[in-house]
Amino acid sequence: IALGPVYPTILKQMKWAPQGLERLGEWKRRIAPTPLVAIGGLNPDRLEGVFGAGADSAAVVTDITLDADPEARTREWIEKTGRWR
User: Fold this and answer.
1) Per-residue model confidence as pLDDT tens digits over 40-69
2) What digits encode the pLDDT tens for the residues 22-44?
3) What is the pTM of this model?
4) How far is CA 29 from CA 11, 12, 13, 16, 25, in A?
């Protein structure tokens, strides 16, 4: 199950406000042990909070595709998510 956007996003127009870390944690408690994917407005600096709130994985689009060096940014994501894999 995916929950988002967790943070404001520019990828697409959303019909609802960002859900935030508290809501992410609420959903994890409701659906556990089903995996929960966090999506929307994510960047490597927000990963600690997202995984700390209960996400099992994080989905990313804009943070990589809009980066000046998407390949390097992807490597950064892989490195920074390593501790949760």
Assistant:
1) 999 999 999 999 999 999 999 999 999 999
2) 999 999 999 999 999 999 999 99
3) 0.91
4) 28, 28, 28, 21, 6
d(CA 14, CA 6): 11
Count the alpha carbons within 13 Å of 71 in the hemisphere toward its beta carbon. 0
Distance (Å, whole) CA 76 – CA 70: 10
Question: What does the block give as tokens for 29?
Answer: 């408690």
Name the superfamily (CATH) of residues 2-84: Aldolase class I (3.20.20.70)
**Distances 58 to 14, 19, 85 between C-alpha atoms, Å:** 18, 14, 11
